[in-house]
Structures are given as structure tokens and as C-alpha cells.
Amino acid sequence: MYLLPLLLLLASITSQTPIHAPSILDHVNPLIGSYGTTPNGNGGMIPSVSPPFAMTRWTPQTRENFISQVPYGDSDRLLHGFQATHQPAIWMGEAGSVVLMPGVGTVRPLFEDRGLAFRKEEERSTPYVYEVRLDSTPRLGQDWNATAEAVGDGEVPGGAGAVPGDVEAGANGRASLTADAHVGHLRFDFDTAAVSSPWVFVQATRRNWTGEVRIDHERQEVSGYNPERQDYRLGPDKAPSFKGYFVARFSQPFESYGTAVGNETVHGSSHAHDNFTGAYVAFAPSTTRVEVRVGVSYISVEQARTNLEIEIPDRQTFETTVHRVKSAWLEKLDRVHIEGVNGTDPDHDPRKIFYTGLFHALQYPNDFSEPLPSGDRVFYSGYTDRVHHAPRGEGYYQSWSIWDTYRAEHSLLTLFAPERVNNMMRSLLQIFDWSGWLPMWANLVETNIMIATNADVVLANALTRGFRDFNVSKAWDAVSKDAFTPPDRDTELLYYDREPDTPYEARAGLTAYAEQGWVSNDRWAESGSRTLDYAFNDFACAVVGTYYANASAHDLATLNARSKNYAHLWNNQTQFMHARNANGSWAADPSWGWTEGDDWVYTFDVMHDVPGLAKLFGGRSALRDRLDVHFHQGHNEHSNEPSHHVPYLYSVLGWPARAAETIRAIAWENYNATSGGLSGNEDLGQMSAWYVFSALGFYPVNPASDEYVVGSPFFEKVEIRWPDGVASGGRSTGQDGKLVITAPGAPTKPYVRSLKVDGREVTKPVLNHGEIVRARKIEFAMSETPTSWGVY
Ligand SMILES: *[C@@H]1O[C@H](CO)[C@@H](O)[C@H](O)[C@H]1NC(C)=O
Ligand SMILES: *[C@@H]1O[C@H](CO)[C@@H](O)[C@H](O)[C@H]1NC(C)=O
Ligand SMILES: *[C@@H]1O[C@H](CO)[C@@H](O)[C@H](O)[C@H]1NC(C)=O
Ligand SMILES: *[C@@H]1O[C@H](CO)[C@@H](O)[C@H](O)[C@H]1NC(C)=O
Ligand SMILES: *[C@@H]1O[C@H](CO)[C@@H](O)[C@H](O)[C@H]1NC(C)=O
Ligand SMILES: *[C@@H]1O[C@H](CO)[C@@H](O)[C@H](O)[C@H]1NC(C)=O
Ligand SMILES: *[C@@H]1O[C@H](CO)[C@@H](O)[C@H](O)[C@H]1NC(C)=O
Ligand SMILES: *[C@@H]1O[C@H](CO)[C@@H](O)[C@H](O)[C@H]1NC(C)=O
Ligand SMILES: *[C@@H]1O[C@H](CO)[C@@H](O)[C@H](O)[C@H]1NC(C)=O
Ligand SMILES: *[C@@H]1O[C@H](CO)[C@@H](O)[C@H](O)[C@H]1NC(C)=O
């Protein structure tokens, strides 16, 4: 254990507890979801360090990320930098990032030249610090594709000037990374015996992007900006003056420095404004440790410096930053204590899956606001392309992956981050004010990725859970615009997925949907999924309307009637949902018209009216039989979101025992505690939100209502200390709530035999939100064999 000397060293230089003092965070493995051979078979997660909901996450960089590739892969064996990433998910583009990489000897600016081998078995990843031991021998010409074997053998493809040598013998540097919300704190240790002229390279922009770097040797700073926004072609907002700014302040004086354009370095130059640019600073040969704090900002270099000085001021030690970030995560995750788990197989340790799931789920939407010395906050909006002042303490939330997260992630946020929910809703309405529409998939700005206006559901979700500190009149304006106003050029564009240069997509095909009850498949892309989602969105809009006194009764009646439009897609001959053409005929191919799914899964896409769906089948047992076929024949695809609520339909229909078996099987097959432990993209917490809810024993099948459907709790006992405000719509009451969920024998007994909430028998497999957050005790009695509980 090489970490031991480090621990001892820290203990001697700080009065604080060692950075790796045991805590609940030991159950978090940020590498979960970081392995995958294809973009779809990848969690898209990275071993990032940041506090919850931070604007910027810092990550080791083993790959050059782009849309469909994140900056780190668990199978990679070369490290090429430490990156301040703003890529929230694998299918989104990076924006305005900065990368730092240490090295020795000749400065190597290019990604493909600067990779250093690292010792995988000594890599340490936690939510609050990432540590790695590096080989100082450059691996010229290698990229992330290098295999472990190649590195281990010392083979250096294309390695002009490289010294072959095995990793064991060569490891002679160490890098550690921690980060506050807008500032990275990096520490590079160089082993003098092996080393000459340590340097740090700061990459501002990649190929084809023009950025700036400036070196101030008196302040020991490198500053600059990067305007890159990889998904700039998507959506209507171009955010023309967008830039990611940075100020990197070093602990050691520069012995020399220079700038780089591509692979060309200009020694002694202190400024570059160019395509593909960066800067390097080099230190005296005897230097053994360099620390650097890197403030980042979307506003300006000055603001990046302000962020640095406020969040990690000059005298703050690396250990202090680690402690602050660790405390921020403990404040969230140490609220849950679990006993009685399936404990034998470490690769399936459910505590690791659960806590890592919470860690993933409490990162987005993220707060783009930046602090001022006055205590006010400011933020850049890509919608207005301007900087805005926020009232004291107010954040501004961005990164909305709503087609994914409306399902369970937002319900989870109302439970574990209630203090942020009203502010998140205000941010949604702010976006509506600026752009005229609620977001669909807003990265820096709207990308129009995926379909439908599921922000309607997110607002209904907050309202039904008691969150009202936002303008409900405006919420109604926003959702009723979604429901009644087709997007621009609706009858002209196809609105296919990721179509470039489109206006706000909102409900593409609404022109036809409003007239005939479905989106015509011979006219718009993804018509089947749109029709089903719009029916649910209509239901959610009507829910929002019930919270606004002046919503017109006529509109509410229209919305409630339209919420049954799913039935237009019911093909009674095939007993499947089927996309339809404008003239009412069925799409020639039943596989047409679906968004990341097929007619099997979309046939169950009626979250708000399961009895109505059952009626189409001719009764609930017929729908149950279809679910059996669906699962037994392998049609369920839990790796993508449309399948997430499906196993819980058994409970709604009156067969909770089948739900229990199915949920457990899905959890076992799609989640584990290894780096490959997410079968699909995490999608800003939705994959994990499914697991966290399922482990607790209930899931929000209809997230526009306050109901959760009971499944099968995984643990014998869970004690939760809810955050203040959970039962009061996010308003502080001065105290945390406390709930104990018990389910004796749960790890080996999947079936619910009985359920009590504070002593009251619950006979239907449904709990509502208010009941859960106010209860002190939820008691499940479990059974090894199927029971008749919840059967009707
Ligand atoms: C990775 O390596 C394999 C085998 O050497 C090669 O065929 C493939 O093209 C490489 N891929 C990339 C992205 O470099
Ligand atoms: C940027 O530089 C690269 C090579 O370094 C070159 O291929 C590319 O054309 C340049 N792009 C622009 C926009 O100048
Ligand atoms: C950079 O631009 C050049 C010339 O337009 C193009 O061929 C190349 O693919 C671009 N490279 C990247 C990495 O975008
Ligand atoms: C970059 O320049 C260095 C030194 O001149 C050279 O060894 C290396 O091969 C170059 N890298 C590439 C990718 O051209
Ligand atoms: C709430 O929104 C409505 C528009 O629906 C607007 O007229 C009103 O001024 C807003 N109220 C506040 C307090 O901002
Ligand atoms: C509803 O409309 C009436 C009449 O226009 C108005 O006086 C009242 O303030 C409105 N109420 C709300 C909650 O907007
Ligand atoms: C209905 O529309 C489909 C698709 O556009 C077309 O193939 C079919 O011929 C039409 N049927 C009638 C009766 O017009
Ligand atoms: C489907 O067809 C069956 C058998 O013809 C009929 O009894 C039922 O009413 C039909 N259901 C619907 C929704 O049209
Ligand atoms: C973990 O899950 C991944 C993805 O589902 C799977 O490929 C891998 O085999 C699983 N590992 C274990 C130990 O179950
Ligand atoms: C416990 O482990 C078994 C396999 O040993 C698995 O089938 C079962 O689903 C697990 N139960 C839970 C609650 O994780």
C-alpha cells in the first residue's frame, strides 16, 4: 500500500483527520459506469471530483472526449491530463474545458505525445480526491487505445525518442486531484532522482478551435479561454460569445515558460491567441512538488480568478480542499444508513451500487452560478449570451436531460436535495422567459435531443410534492404553450433526432396531434413515441393547471381528454401500439416511429392510465400476460429509459409478486459494483435513480402524480435522515426528518407479505410522497415465496 506514507505525512502536517479517514463514502466507487466497449454499452461515467451539483467536474483524462466519448475509460492505461469537464453525459458535447498535464524533460503538448503510463492497481478514486502514480517515461505516439499489455511490455508504438521500460520500474511521479465547484486543486509530486525540469502544460484549445493563453510569471499564473462547444450545431441558440475561462495559479516560481500552437512550442513567449493553443511552465530541476489551483468561469478571466480566490484562497492547503469536498458529499450521503445486505460478492455489493448511485444522482442539473465577494452570484446564460445577476444565494441550474430524468431522477431530487428543487424550477421558468420554451435536452443551451415536452412532468412532479416557491402562473403559461402551440416550421420539418439548425422542437407534430389525436408517421419522425409521450405530457399539464387558480376549465378539460390519445395507437389486431399515418392507416412497418425502443416496450408507455391500457388489452390479466411474454422473451431493455417503469406495472395491475421477481432480476443483471456496472448510459442520474428507489422498495411509475408503486426492498434496514425541507416544499423548518424502513430477511426474501406505515396497514402497493416523507417507520414483512399481498 503506497498510500500509507502519504497518510502518515498528512496526519503530521495537519490537525485535521486524514483525507482517507473511513466514512460512508468508502462505499462510493466513482469508477462504476466508466467501462464499456461501445458508447451505448457504457455508463458514460468518469472518476470525477467535485462537490454535488457543481458547475465543473474534474477528471483524469485518458481520452479526447467528444459527443459519444467521455474523457476517461477504465480500460485505458495512459493518462494524458486532468480535465475540467463540462460534458454532462456521453451523448453531449464538451464545452469550454481546460486540461493540465505534468511531465518532465521535453515539453510535449499533443495529446498523443504526452500520455504517461499509470499504475492501475494504485489508482485511487473517491468523490473528493483522485490519486494516481505516474511513470515519467513519455509514451510518444500512443493514445487511449494502448492496451495494458502493450504498456506492461514497454512496447512503445511510434515511440521516437521514447525510452522503453516497464511501468513498475519507471513509476516516479504522483498526481492528486480535488476540486471545489469552480476550482480544481491539483498536486504533482516529482521524484527528483529520476527527473529533470518538471513542467506543467495547460491546454486551452484543441485542433480547429481558436483560444487564448497568457502567462504572468510574477503572479505565477497561466490564464486564458477556450470557446469550444462541441454540440454548437444543434438547436437554435448559438451562444456566440460562449467561452470557458481559466486562471491556473501555481505554488512554485516558473524557471521558464512558453506557449504552444499544435506541436510547435515557442520558448519564452507569454501570450498566444491561436488555433490549437496552450502554454507550459517549467520549474527548477530540484522541484519535487507543484500545486496548482485552477479557477474556471463562463464569465471572464477575472471571474475565474475571483472563483479561485473565494473557493480556494492562497493559504488553503490541498488537504483542506479535500476535506471541504468530502464534507459536502457526506452532508448528502451520510444521511442514509443501510443494514442487512447481500454481502458475499464484492462485485455485487449493493451498498456500493446504492451509494454510488446517489453520488451520480446528486450531480445534475448543475448550478452555473459563480460567486462574487459581496455574496451575490452571477451567471452566464447561453440563451441570452449575457451575464446575469442572481439574487443573494440564488443559483442557476442548467444541464437538463429531461427525457431521461423526468422518470425517477427528479423525484429523487425532491427527497435528497429538496433545498434545490424550487430553485431548479425557477431556472426552468427562467429558460422559458428567455427562449419562449421549456427545455427538452439543454446542455449549455437547447440541443433538441430526444422528444416531447417532459419538463411539463418535472413541474408537475415538484408541485405534487409540495414545492411551490416559483411562479405557478408562469409554469402554467409554459406548459400550456407546450400543449397548444406547435413549434416553428412544424409542418415543414421532420424534426428527426439531432437534426441540425432547427428551431425549438417542443412538441413537433402537434399540428396533427391536436387535430386528429396522433402525430402522423408519414409526416414526422418518431411519431409513435411522440404521440404516447404527448398524451402523458397532456396529463402532466393538467396537473400543473390544478395548482393554478386561473387555468381555464376548458383547457383543463381538453388536456384531460387528450391524455387518452395513447389509445389512438392501439392496434387491436396485433395487440400492440402502432404508429399511424395521417389518413389513419397503420405505419407499413410496426417498428417505425419509436424513439430508442420498439413496439414491445412502447406498448407499455402509458404511465398515467394503466387501467385504461389494461382495458385496451381486454382486461388486466391480458396485460399481465403480455408483460410475462415481454420479460420472458427478453424484450425489456433496461439499459434505456423507456423500459424503466415497466416491471412496476405488475404491481399496479395487482400482481406485486411478479414485480418483485422482475425488479430483483433487473437489478442483478443491469447493475454491479464494477467499472462495467451500469448496463446503459447513466443519463444524469436516471439509471441510478431507478436502483436507489428500487432498493428502498418503491418507484415513481407516474412521476406527474405523488404516487410511488411498491416493488421489493433490497435491504433489511435503511435509516434515512431526510434533508430539512423535504416535507415542507423545500422551505426550512430547522430540522431534518427521520425515516426507518425495515424489511427483515429482504436480501433472500423478495416478496412483500405485508406493509405498515407508522403502524397502519397498507394493502394496495402504493405509497404517496407525503406519506413517505412524514412517516417515521415503514415496515415490510418479507417472504421467500410469492404472497397474495396487493392482489386484487
Ligand atoms: C486501436 O487499436 C487497434 C489494434 O491496434 C486498431 O485496429 C484500431 O484502429 C485502433 N483504434 C483507434 C481508435 O485508434
Ligand atoms: C488549425 O490547425 C490545424 C493544424 O494544427 C489545421 O489542420 C487546421 O486547419 C487549423 N484550423 C483552423 C480553423 O485554422
Ligand atoms: C480541423 O479542420 C480540418 C480542416 O477543415 C479538418 O480536415 C479536420 O478534420 C478538423 N479536425 C478536427 C479535429 O476537427
Ligand atoms: C511533436 O514534436 C516532437 C518533437 O519535435 C516529435 O518528436 C513528435 O513526433 C511530434 N508529434 C507529432 C504527433 O507529430
Ligand atoms: C408570474 O408570471 C406571470 C406570467 O404568467 C407574470 O405576469 C407575473 O408578473 C409573474 N409574477 C411574478 C411575481 O414575477
Ligand atoms: C386570476 O384572474 C383574476 C382576474 O383576472 C385576477 O384578479 C387574479 O389575480 C388571478 N389570480 C391568479 C392566481 O393569477
Ligand atoms: C394512407 O397513407 C399511406 C401512407 O402515406 C399511404 O401509403 C396509403 O396509400 C394511404 N391510404 C389511403 C387509403 O389513402
Ligand atoms: C378489440 O377486439 C376485440 C375482439 O374483436 C373486441 O372485443 C374489443 O372490443 C376490441 N377492443 C378495442 C379497444 O377496440
Ligand atoms: C457487471 O455489469 C456489466 C454490464 O451489465 C457486465 O458486463 C459485467 O459482466 C458485470 N460484472 C459482474 C461481475 O457481474
Ligand atoms: C442477492 O443475491 C442473489 C444472488 O446471490 C441475487 O439473485 C439476489 O437478487 C440478490 N438480492 C438482492 C436484494 O440484491
Give a written overview of the molecule.
With 792 residues, the chain is of the alpha+beta class. Among the domains are: 8-333, Distorted Sandwich (Beta-galactosidase, Chain A, domain 5), CATH 2.70.98; 390-572, Up-down Bundle (Glutathione S-transferase Yfyf (Class Pi), Chain A, domain 2), CATH 1.20.1050. It is built from 22 helices and 36 strands. A hairpin with a 2-residue loop joins β33 (751-757) and β34. α7 packs across α21, α9 (409-416) crosses α10 and α10 (418-435) runs antiparallel to α11 (455-464). It is globular and about 80 Å long. The N and C termini lie far apart (58 Å). Residues 1-15 and 143-171 have low confidence and may be disordered. The structure holds 2-acetamido-2-deoxy-beta-D-glucopyranose (10 copies). One 2-acetamido-2-deoxy-beta-D-glucopyranose is lined by residues 207-208, 262, 275-276.
SSE layout:
Layout: H1 3-13, E1 57-61, E2 78-79, E3 81-85, E4 98-104, H2 111-114, E5 116-118, E6 124-125, E7 130-138, H3 148-152, H4 167-170, E8 171-179, E9 183-190, E10 198-203, E11 210-216, E12 221-226, E13 244-250, E14 256-261, E15 264-267, E16 271-275, E17 277-282, E18 289-297, H5 301-311, H6 318-333, E19 336-339, H7 350-361, E20 366-367, E21 370-371, E22 377-381, E23 386-390, E24 397-398, E25 400-401, H8 402-405, H9 409-416, H10 418-435, E26 441-442, H11 455-464, H12 472-484, H13 510-516, H14 527-546, H15 553-562, E27 570-571, E28 576-577, H16 599-602, H17 610-617, H18 620-632, H19 649-653, H20 656-670, H21 686-696, E29 698-699, E30 707-710, E31 717-722, E32 737-742, E33 751-757, E34 760-761, E35 766-768, H22 769-774, E36 777-783
Helix pairs in contact: 7-21, 9-10, 10-11, 11-14, 12-14, 14-15, 17-18
Pfam families: Glyco_hydro_92, Glyco_hydro_92N
Domain Glycosyl hydrolase family: 303-783
GO molecular function: carbohydrate binding; peptide-N4-(N-acetyl-beta-glucosaminyl)asparagine amidase activity
